[in-house]
Amino acid sequence: MSPTWENPEAVVGRLWIRLAVAVGVILVVAAASRAQQSGSTKNDDPNPSPQAALSGTWKLNRDESDDPREKLRSAIQDRNQNGNPGGMGRRGGMGGGGIGMGIPGIGGMGGGMGRPNSGPGQSSGSDPQRARLLDLVEAPNRVSVAQKGPEIDMTDTDSHTRVLFTDGRKLEKPKKDALQTQVKAHWEHQTLITEEKGPDGEKISHAYELSPEGRFIDTLTLESKRLNTPIIVRSVYDKPE
């Protein structure tokens, strides 16, 4: 029996169809892979929107913010009542009576001990030290935030600028009375965290973030050897109208 020969044109046609189908499958798979990689790149960015959204000028909303004076008053009351290993009270031991605040706008505490030279045992320099603590926890009325890649500049109403670096670079030593200070910072998800030291060795950290309502929130935590517990002050900022 003689073999049956197919029409060469039909064979070529089938080959072209198979080739077209194969090419189509390859293109679909490649497109899906590119889309997946693009989505992964976007999701891997830890702070796509907060960094840009923090930029701008913000005005302190005192009604929504904590009162730093009350926070400081409460921390010193606790220190007065329970004593302090740092020895900020009377000479000769812990818990030997209260100490005076001597901070403008807060007034004396602990039986009128806020007056200079009020008697034996008054710790020298306590009034300026407490005034410095208040300066550290009080929030500025306005803050301008400028994002420059890993650098975030925060300038207050007195033209003091804190330059936050999130890339781990070595920072310059702060100069006395300088208007600009460099601060180490890092991102934790959508929150910008800073870590720094106060003039008397205080540990100070800020957590900057945006609320769901679009407000700029600054949560300050201050730890001092002169206090038993940290002072935590939450300041809320709005965009000025």
Structural write-up:
By secondary structure, the protein is α+β, with helices and mostly antiparallel strands. The protein is built from 4 helices and 9 strands; from the N terminus they run ααβααββββββββ. Strand 2 (142-148) and strand 3 form a beta hairpin.
Concise summary:
The protein has about 240 residues and is an alpha+beta fold.
Characteristics:
alpha+beta; nine-stranded mixed β-barrel; 26% strand; 241 residues
Note the topology:
Blueprint (H helix, E strand, L loop, with lengths): L7 H37 L5 H5 L1 E5 L7 H15 L43 H12 L4 E7 L2 E6 L4 E5 L14 E9 L2 E7 L5 E8 L5 E8 L7 E8 L3
Parallel strand pairs: 4-5
Antiparallel strand pairs: 1-2, 1-9, 2-3, 3-4, 5-6, 6-7, 7-8, 8-9
Question: Beta fraction of the residues?
Answer: 25-35%
Q: How do the strands line up in the largest sheet? A: 1-2-3-4-5-6-7-8-9
User: Helix/strand-derived class?
Assistant: alpha+beta
Total number of beta strands: 9
Biggest beta sheet attributes = 9 strands, mixed, barrel
- Write down the Rg: 31 Å
Number of helices: 4
Order of helices and strands: HHEHHEEEEEEEE
Report mean pLDDT, rounded to a whole number.
75
